[in-house]
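User: tokens in, sequence out, please.
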């Protein structure tokens, strides 16, 4: 973890310990380790980030860069113009869209850590 500070290394290690999501700061990607379901681990990671106030309600909605009307995380189980396909409540009034392939879940997880933990 040479590209991040020692304090950020500690935070990333804690996230990995609590969620079993391994973050690589050089590639900014997450690998889900030792689980049967990447969806459950994706949910666990975002729950952790919400519970520990890395992601706050004031940050919502959070959308994918190329899909501004399709929210990844929102304060309601909706996108801009329709309902989420597979929403999961990950905090009090915080909903995560889980209808993504494994690669997208890993990429979005890395984005959340980069944007809201390391640069937050």
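Assistant: Sequence out:
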């Amino acid at each position: 973890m040479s590209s991040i500070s020692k304090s950020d290394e500690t935070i990333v290690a804690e996230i990995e310990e609590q969620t079993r999501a391994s973050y690589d700061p050089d590639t900014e990607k997450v690998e889900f380790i030792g689980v049967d379901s990447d969806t459950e681990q994706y949910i666990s990671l975002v729950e952790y980030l919400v519970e520990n106030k890395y992601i706050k309600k004031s940050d919502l909605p959070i959308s994918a860069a190329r899909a501004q009307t399709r929210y990844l995380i929102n304060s309601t189980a909706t996108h801009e113009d329709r309902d989420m396909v597979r929403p999961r409540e990950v905090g009090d009034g915080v909903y995560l869209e889980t209808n993504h392939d494994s690669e997208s879940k890993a990429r979005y997880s890395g984005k959340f850590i980069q944007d809201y933990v390391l640069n937050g």
